[in-house]
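Researcher: Going back to the complex we discussed earlier. I've cleaned up the inputs and rechecked each line, so this should be the final set. Can you rerun the prediction on the complete assembly and write out the structure?
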Amino acid sequence: MALLSKKDTKLITDPLADNNPITIQVLGICSALAITAQLKASIVMALSVMAVLAIGNVVISLMRNIIPSKIRIIVQLVVVAALVIIVDQVLKAFSYELSKTLSVFVGLIITNCIIMGRFEAFALANGPWRSFLDGIGNAAGYGLILVIVGFFRELLGSGTLLGFKVLGDPIEKTGLYAIGYENNGFMLLSPMALIVVGIIIWVQRSRNEALVEDH
Amino acid sequence: MEYIELFFKSIFIDNMVFATFLGMCSYLAVSKKVSTAVGLGAAVVFVMLITVPLNWLLDQYILQPGALKWLGAEYADYDLSFLSFILFIATIATMVQLVEIIVEKFSPSLYNSLGIFLPLIAVNCAILGGSLFMQSREIPTLGLATVYGVGSGIGWFLAILAIAAIREKIRYSNVPPALRGLGITFIITGLMAIGFMSFGGMLTGGDDEGAKEEQTATVETPEAENVKELANNTKEIN
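Model: Rerun complete. Updated structure for the full complex:
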């Protein structure tokens, strides 16, 4: 690929696994847990965060030489808040049902620490193109966890994926339900999201010893 | 009575950490020691106490559809509610800056131990979440908004205190290596959240059957509906 040098590709692939924002950097967890009961909501949330993070990173990177360091937090918050308002209005206009499902969590993208974290750690020190790639990469790493959690919670909790009944019909007893399978309603409850993420962390760290922490 | 009800409801039933997962980042990152957890918890309670009523006033007199009536009849159809994110976050950022100055002046040691996490209160979703829930549940009076703010703050304080105490003890346990640190903290938080769900029936213990059924329904629906249901509940109480 001529467009992306090796270093640039790393910006995108690193956050997907060994430097994942959620499981390694411990950032942006609130929204990751709260909206993952349905796969569709998880995907929309991941895309919204990607838009805000990539554009915000570029904006901050373009302004990095003129922002006084004392008030940079406020400047960053204003940039994020403006972008989130746009995302929120777009969602309300084109997919009202979904924006109702996400409720206050769209607004909470403002306080998603991944965004502040990337502004502080990357966009303030790098050029716009690299910041853009960094934004895409980190949002993709975040989205990956969201989609995994959303997938398992929706599949085991309501037997559907994106609304399609993949395991059969629970009322007419077709598919898996015919042999006595029951939906695990527990997966839809919020605590299970925490436990699923805990298990993802467990799997990830047992595959890569270097990530293990000592308490 | 409704004040007490809302107070306990916001601490136990709608606990910021265990029911809505807000403020998880700092909750996970600053809960290694009880002493720092207490400092951060107190700061969060203080910021919540001030920002939720302030944002209630902003919402009531500037943002709501028709809120600008006090300026004159021709402003009555203005709806500025799309500006609420930016105004709320500005209030919060200002208050956090103030807390930072106060803490630095009166307790430099606490200031140093909290480090980067003090300014990060500004991006603690529990605080913005408190204001947004206040708005979406349509809390009717300034007094109730204050009670809601303090209650949610105390709920968050309680959660971080509990997890910090557990993490101090778990250092002596034999946890599988890959699960150490973050992993086990997630799982413990999940178990604690399951425990906190049982508070759902607390307020309706002696009340009529109908309210009881609704309460259980609230606990058992997925979050999105949960939020909606809770909003309805709050409205009914008032």
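Model: Worth noting: Chain B touches chain A through 59 residues (CB under 8 Å).
Researcher: Good, that matches what I expected from the previous run.
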